[in-house]
Specification:
3-stranded mixed beta sheet; 7 strands; alpha/beta; 19% strand; 177 residues
Length: 177
Amino acid sequence: MVTEVRPDPGARDVVAQVVDPEMPMLTLDDLGVVRSVAEEPGDGGGRVVVTITPTYSGCPAVEVMREDIRIALGEAGYTSVEVRTVFSPAWSTDWISEAGRRKLAAAGVAPPGKAPARSAGPIPLTLDAPTVQTVQVRCPRCDAPTTEEFSRFGPTACTALRRCPSCREPFEHMKEI
């Protein structure tokens, strides 16, 4: 009998499997939070530097993400790990992978559409009431083309709560950011 010898997973492969603490159907890689994974040579096997960009600057899960990455790499035998957080450029839902979008839909969360264009530079401050955005969101359960938002915020700041008039089921929609 021939036994196949597989190489140990690289640091990038290990980090790619770390699950998002708020949306456990996705990995941080699916979500587009992982910016880079670099293995730097050195004494004792070198060092791994992971760079992440959280979904927004006040994300309450960022420390959990950082710790989960450290634990996963530690369990894979990496002894020197640094997790850096960068905020520029800002994370966008456009960074969610196609696999991530499919996983969201399979879990009953409507994936985001294309994020709105952002202008470079400062954002002007206005004192007018915000305009209501009308976004067409398909139902992830029955695929009906029209749904209605009933709460701008869901269990996480990145989601809104919607319902489908066809199947009458409520669901989350990951907002376009």
